Amino acid sequence: MSHLTEEQFEDVVQGRTPAPAHVAECPACRDRVAEARAVRARLQASFASVHAGAGLADRLRRATVAEPRRTAKFLRLPRLAWAMAAAAAILVVAIPTVLYLTTPSAAAAAQRELVRIHTGNLSAQHDVLTGADPAQVAAYLKAQLGFDLATPRLGQGMAMRGCCVAHFKGQAVGSYVVQTPRGPISVIVVPQAPKDLGLTETFEAGGRTFWGGAFADNCIVATRLGGFTYCAVGEPAHDVLCEILLALGLGEQS
Amino acid sequence: MADRKNFESIAMPHLDAVYRAAVALCRRENEAEDLVQLTYAKALEQFGSFAPGTSVKAWLLQILRNAWIDELRHRRVVGTVVSIEENGAAVADPPHVEEAAWENSAAVLENFADDEVRRALGELPSDQRLTLFLVDVEGMSQEEVAAITGVAAGTVKSRTSRARAVLRGKLMAHAKDLGLLGRGR
Predict the structure, then answer these.
(1) Residue A62, exposed/middle/buried by CB under 10 A (0-12, 13-18, 19+)?
(2) b vs e for B36-58, b when ≥16 Cβ sit within 10 Å of the residue's Cβ?
């Protein structure tokens, strides 16, 4: 009497083929199939309550599906006025429309990339990142990137968790994770100016200017330092991220 | 605009399935949401290359899987190994709690919370995890899973079998830790 092969076993468990007569006659194979089916059923059940929230669906519609708004009032102009209006329309309607249609997607893409780096930093390996030495982080980033990045001033409940070299718009950029009293944040250092990242909202704090944006559930606050943009990314609100950047000494002139 | 409306009409009905797969891969809900958002953004960008008549769900899940792999490969963490290569690398043998079948498995499994089962799945290497999820939870065919994960159908079957054994071992070990294993015998 030969037992089920792995292939036969999988086909039976998945219901692709009926159980051969051997299964009914062999207690070992029967129990093995029953156990695998039980695990399969329990695994299915464990995901039965997992659904995308309404908030996610709304964000997806806004970010990727919703049609950009546009105006078409100029189409109602009288025929004779059309030619006269055309040149003005190019300036008044077309250029803003082009800016409207292109800038938000580019901004969303840049901010999406920043948040992707942040979430990746957190998901990489928590244990690996914990307890990194700031001096080691600075030396590593300099070796990888070829230039010095400002290292944060720690203390006040903040500790360095680690760093990594990520890719942003095709370039290697440095980032490090700081554990703060408000949760972990990533500081991602990029050469682009804040406005090129679509960060249009500005804040004044501690005599410095900060730029803000958001993607998904994360806020982004950036400041310029030494020719680079230091972007704090995390779940804390904009004003909290400003405070954290200042507390880290990243809002000060080098 | 027509493309966007068409995309919405065919892609959004699969949001739950894509989200479930993201939860299986990421384990954390906020990360899963980010991955789903990235997946839909990429899907919209690639919508022109979608072949009508083929499975939208499989297409979205393939994009999700690729986005996840990109995510893992895009980073190197200082000083040590990030288990990026867990996806295809050698995997430790499943814990051999015991080779004999688990007689009262269904009853014991009922004692586990859903997130305990998902956590056990989450401990599997990514491709094993995704393969078992797609086969067992989403009920996809081996051919569909092969297309999503970029391997041969035979590999899907062996990977499913391997993943099932690893998951079984982890659940049995957990049941032992909880003192559940062996009850009712």
Answers:
(1) exposed
(2) bbbbbbbbbeebeebeeeebbbb
The residue length of chain B stands at 185
Give ipTM to 2 decimals.
Answer: 0.84
A44 vs B contacts (CB less than 8 Å): 136-137
A139 vs B: CB within 8 A? no
Question: To the nearest whole number, what is the mean pLDDT of chain B?
Answer: 81
**How far B66 CA lies from chain A's nearest CA (Å)?**
14
Rounded distance between C-alpha atoms, residue A104 and residue A93, angstroms: 17
Q: How far apart are CA A245 and CA A239, in angstroms?
A: 10
Q: Does A214 touch chain B (CB under 8 A)?
A: no
Q: Which CATH architecture has domain B112-185?
A: Orthogonal Bundle (1.10)
CB contact under 8 A, A65 and B4: yes
pLDDT band at B147 (very low <50, low <70, confident <90, very high): very high
Q: Which of A70-74, A223-227, B150-154 holds the top average pLDDT? A: B150-154
Tokens at residue A232, please? 């704090």
Which tokens is A12 given? 């039976």
Number of H helices, E strands in chain A: 9, 7
Contact A117 B135 (CB under 8 A): no
Higher pLDDT, B24 or B88: B24
CATH architecture of B1-100: Orthogonal Bundle (1.10)
What residue segments make up the domains of chain B, in order of their start? 1-100, 112-185
Identify the residue with better confidence: A142 or A38.
A38
CB pairs under 8 A between A and B: 187
Give the pLDDT score at B94: 42
**Chain B residues 51-110 with CB within 8 Å of chain A:** 71-72, 74-83, 100-103, 105-106, 109-110
Which residues are paired to A180 by β-bridges? A183
Q: Which residue has the tokens 């990194």?
A: A132
A98-129 pLDDT, tens digit per residue, is 444 344 566 777 888 888 888 877 765 433 34
Of B71 and B88, more confident: B71
pLDDT at res. B59: 95
Which residues, listed in sequence order, are joined to residue A212 by a DSSP beta bridge? A201, A221
**CB-count burial class (<10 Å; 0-12, 13-18, 19+) for A154:** middle
